[in-house]
């Protein structure tokens, strides 16, 4: 089964911020793995082929964090 690799640059100022992003990714169906880094201000997400970039982006935005940029399978996307 194919998968997607999504990368987001997210403004996170504390552990609570990165924790909020981790919580929404943990609950999202189809997410195989993720790595949220407060130090590098990034969220790298591996999903099943059925999960759209826009779906993951919307979940991260719902935490109230600002998404500065995003990539889907290495291709820059709009945020």
From TrEMBL:
Q: What would be one Gene Ontology cellular-component term for the protein?
A: cytosol
GO biological process assignments: copper ion transport
A molecular function annotated in GO for this UniProt entry is: copper chaperone activity
Enumerate the InterPro entries for this protein: Copper_transport_ATOX1-like (IPR051881), Heavy-metal-associated_CS (IPR017969), HMA_dom (IPR006121), HMA_dom_sf (IPR036163)
Record key words, sorted: Chaperone, Copper, Copper transport, Ion transport, Metal-binding, Transport
Q: Which SUPFAM superfamilies does the UniProt record give?
A: HMA, heavy metal-associated domain
Protein family: Belongs to the ATX1 family.
Q: What is this protein called?
A: Cytosolic copper metallochaperone
Which species does the entry assign this protein to? Friedmanniomyces endolithicus
Q: What is the lineage of its organism?
A: Eukaryota, Fungi, Dikarya, Ascomycota, Pezizomycotina
